[in-house]
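Following up on my earlier thread - several people asked me to post the actual chain instead of describing it. Fair enough. Here it is, all 130 residues.
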Amino acid sequence: QVRLVESGGGSVQSGGSLTLSCGASGYTFGSACMGWFRQAPGMEREAVAGIYRGGGSEVYAGSAKGRFRISQDNAKKTLHLEMNHLKPEDTATYYCAAQPNCPFDYYREWWYRIVEYNYWGQGTQVTVSS
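Reply from S.P.:
Thanks for posting it. Predicted structure:
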Protein backbone atom coordinates (compact mmCIF):
# COMPACT_ATOMS: atom_id res chain seq x y z
CA GLN A 1 0.00 0.00 0.00
CA VAL A 2 2.65 2.51 1.04
CA ARG A 3 5.34 2.85 -1.60
CA LEU A 4 8.52 4.88 -1.68
CA VAL A 5 10.64 4.88 -4.82
CA GLU A 6 14.00 6.64 -4.95
CA SER A 7 15.63 7.90 -8.11
CA GLY A 8 18.35 10.27 -9.22
CA GLY A 9 21.44 8.44 -8.04
CA GLY A 10 24.51 8.08 -10.18
CA SER A 11 28.23 8.67 -10.43
CA VAL A 12 29.76 12.12 -10.11
CA GLN A 13 33.18 13.58 -9.50
CA SER A 14 34.19 15.20 -6.25
CA GLY A 15 32.73 18.69 -6.01
CA GLY A 16 29.77 17.86 -8.19
CA SER A 17 26.06 17.85 -7.43
CA LEU A 18 23.17 15.43 -7.53
CA THR A 19 19.52 15.69 -6.61
CA LEU A 20 17.74 12.60 -5.38
CA SER A 21 13.99 12.13 -5.52
CA CYS A 22 11.58 9.87 -3.69
CA GLY A 23 8.08 9.41 -5.03
CA ALA A 24 5.57 8.56 -2.33
CA SER A 25 2.12 7.04 -2.35
CA GLY A 26 -0.30 5.30 -0.01
CA TYR A 27 -0.38 7.78 2.87
CA THR A 28 -1.14 11.40 3.65
CA PHE A 29 2.06 12.99 2.43
CA GLY A 30 1.73 16.39 4.06
CA SER A 31 1.25 15.09 7.60
CA ALA A 32 4.17 12.66 7.55
CA CYS A 33 7.73 13.05 8.70
CA MET A 34 10.27 11.91 6.15
CA GLY A 35 13.99 11.43 6.08
CA TRP A 36 16.97 10.54 3.97
CA PHE A 37 19.42 7.93 5.21
CA ARG A 38 22.53 6.48 3.67
CA GLN A 39 24.60 3.35 4.06
CA ALA A 40 28.12 2.83 2.82
CA PRO A 41 29.62 -0.65 2.42
CA GLY A 42 30.59 -2.09 5.78
CA MET A 43 28.99 0.79 7.65
CA GLU A 44 25.77 1.25 9.57
CA ARG A 45 22.90 3.13 8.04
CA GLU A 46 23.01 6.76 9.12
CA ALA A 47 20.62 9.67 9.03
CA VAL A 48 21.28 12.50 6.59
CA ALA A 49 18.31 14.84 6.85
CA GLY A 50 14.72 14.98 8.01
CA ILE A 51 11.73 17.09 7.08
CA TYR A 52 8.44 17.68 8.87
CA ARG A 53 5.56 20.13 9.42
CA GLY A 54 4.44 19.64 5.85
CA GLY A 55 7.93 20.48 4.63
CA GLY A 56 8.24 23.66 6.64
CA SER A 57 10.94 22.42 9.00
CA GLU A 58 14.20 20.61 8.34
CA VAL A 59 16.93 18.96 10.35
CA TYR A 60 20.36 17.86 9.16
CA ALA A 61 23.20 15.66 10.25
CA GLY A 62 26.50 17.43 10.72
CA SER A 63 27.90 15.76 7.62
CA ALA A 64 25.12 17.22 5.48
CA LYS A 65 24.64 20.64 7.00
CA GLY A 66 25.56 23.42 4.61
CA ARG A 67 25.91 21.10 1.61
CA PHE A 68 22.61 19.24 1.36
CA ARG A 69 19.06 20.49 1.33
CA ILE A 70 15.96 18.40 1.92
CA SER A 71 12.63 19.52 0.50
CA GLN A 72 9.28 18.16 -0.54
CA ASP A 73 6.75 18.89 -3.25
CA ASN A 74 3.36 18.30 -1.71
CA ALA A 75 1.50 18.51 -5.02
CA LYS A 76 3.65 15.79 -6.55
CA LYS A 77 4.13 13.92 -3.26
CA THR A 78 7.84 13.79 -3.85
CA LEU A 79 10.74 14.14 -1.45
CA HIS A 80 14.04 15.58 -2.66
CA LEU A 81 17.60 15.73 -1.46
CA GLU A 82 19.78 18.29 -3.19
CA MET A 83 23.43 17.43 -2.68
CA ASN A 84 26.18 19.91 -3.50
CA HIS A 85 29.95 19.90 -3.13
CA LEU A 86 29.94 16.14 -3.00
CA LYS A 87 32.86 14.27 -1.47
CA PRO A 88 34.03 10.67 -1.88
CA GLU A 89 32.83 9.97 1.66
CA ASP A 90 29.29 10.70 0.48
CA THR A 91 29.40 7.49 -1.55
CA ALA A 92 26.60 5.27 -0.29
CA THR A 93 23.19 3.84 -1.01
CA TYR A 94 20.64 6.50 -0.16
CA TYR A 95 17.21 5.61 1.20
CA CYS A 96 14.11 7.65 1.83
CA ALA A 97 11.94 6.81 4.80
CA ALA A 98 8.50 7.83 6.02
CA GLN A 99 6.66 7.93 9.30
CA PRO A 100 3.04 8.76 8.38
CA ASN A 101 1.97 9.22 12.02
CA CYS A 102 4.43 11.79 13.17
CA PRO A 103 4.27 13.92 16.32
CA PHE A 104 5.88 17.06 14.98
CA ASP A 105 6.68 18.48 18.42
CA TYR A 106 8.92 15.52 19.20
CA TYR A 107 10.37 14.69 15.80
CA ARG A 108 13.72 16.39 16.39
CA GLU A 109 14.32 14.09 19.35
CA TRP A 110 14.22 10.91 17.27
CA TRP A 111 14.45 11.83 13.59
CA TYR A 112 17.81 10.09 13.21
CA ARG A 113 16.64 6.72 14.54
CA ILE A 114 16.02 4.08 11.87
CA VAL A 115 13.44 2.21 13.94
CA GLU A 116 11.17 5.25 14.10
CA TYR A 117 10.28 5.05 10.41
CA ASN A 118 7.61 2.66 9.23
CA TYR A 119 8.39 2.64 5.53
CA TRP A 120 11.49 2.60 3.36
CA GLY A 121 12.35 2.80 -0.30
CA GLN A 122 14.62 0.41 -2.14
CA GLY A 123 17.57 2.79 -2.23
CA THR A 124 19.53 4.56 -4.94
CA GLN A 125 23.29 4.42 -5.34
CA VAL A 126 25.46 7.53 -5.21
CA THR A 127 29.12 7.22 -6.11
CA VAL A 128 31.51 10.16 -5.80
CA SER A 129 34.93 9.80 -7.38
CA SER A 130 38.07 11.82 -6.69
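The chain has a mean pLDDT of 98. That should answer part of your original question.
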